[in-house]
Amino acid sequence: MALRESEAIVLRTYPMREADLLVTLFTRLEGKVRGVARSAKKSKRRFGGALEPLTHVRAYYDVRERQELVRIDACEVLESPLASEISYPRAVALGHIAELLDELLPDHESNDAIFRLTLSVLHVLTGPEIWMPVTYFALWVTRLVGFLPELSGCVVCGRSLNGSRAYFHALADGLMCVDDKRPASSEISNESRTLAAHMFRAPVETFAAVQWPKSRCADLRKFLIQTLQRHIEKKLVTAGMLERVS
Ligand SMILES: [Zn+2]
C-alpha cells in the first residue's frame, strides 16, 4: 500500500453502499483517479464539504496493487465553488467543465497544463457570467487534448480562411471554405475565429471585463462540442443543458 498526497479537483461522486462515495479525482500528481471515500457521507472531519464537484482539494489516498480503485483517506478544501453563489447557469457551467474533464482525461496520466487551465477558469467562473469562461475552457481543453484542428485554412483545398467565410460539419474534422463546404454545414464567423486566436495568446482574466452574451462565440462552442463528441464518440450530456440556459 502506498500513501499519496496530491492537489486534486473533484470531478464526480456517486453514492455507493451505506455511507461510502465513489469519487473521481483529477489529481495533479497522476491525473484521473477513481477511489472510494469510506463513510464520506458521515465524516465531516475527513471530507467536510470537500467532495462537491470542482472543489480544489488536497487529497490523501492509498494506492493498492492490482486494484483499480484507490482508497481516499481524506480531502482538505483549498478552494470551493460553493464560496460563490450557485445560480442555475453557473451550476450547469460547472457541470459542463466537470463532464469535459471526466470524458477527456485518460486514467492515471498527469496533465499539468489542463490542471492549471481548470483552476484559472474556475477563478473567473464565480458570478453569473458563464459564457466567456465556458468558451475559453472548451477551446483550450480541445487543443490540450490534441483534438483541435487547424483553424486558419480549408482542410480540403488548403486555402487560407483568414478574412473569408468558413464552415464546419458534424462529421468532418476542421474548417472548409465556401467552395468545399458540405451540405448542411454551419458557418463559424470571422469574429469568433479572431477571438479564438486571442484566447490562445492571453490568460482567461484578460477577457473578464469583456461583455460576453450567449450569442458571442456560440458558433465556436458548437464547433468545439461537435469536434469533441466526434472524438469521444458520444454525446456530452451537459452540452444540451448549456444550450437551454438563457
Ligand atoms: Zn477549400
List the ions, cofactors and other small molecules found in this model. zinc ion
Structural class: alpha+beta
Strand content: 15-25%
CATH architecture of the largest domain: Up-down Bundle
CATH fold-level topology of the largest domain: de novo design (two linked rop proteins)
Number of strands: 7
Order of helices and strands: EEEHEEHHHEEHHH
Observed structural traits:
246 residues; alpha+beta; OB fold (Dihydrolipoamide Acetyltransferase, E2P); de novo design (two linked rop proteins); 5-stranded mixed beta barrel; 21% strand; elongated
Describe this structure in words.
With 246 residues, the chain is an alpha+beta fold. It has 2 domains: 82 residues, Beta Barrel (OB fold (Dihydrolipoamide Acetyltransferase, E2P)), CATH 2.40.50.140; 157 residues, Recombination protein O, C-terminal domain (de novo design (two linked rop proteins)). Helix content is 33%, strand content 21%. The chain has 7 helices and 7 strands. A 5-stranded mixed barrel has the order 1-2-3-5-4. Strands 6-7 form a two-stranded antiparallel sheet. Helix 3 packs antiparallel against helix 4 and helix 4 runs parallel beside helix 6. The longest helix has 17 residues. The radius of gyration is 20 Å and the shape is elongated. The mean pLDDT is 94. Bound molecules: zinc ion. Zinc ion binds next to loops.
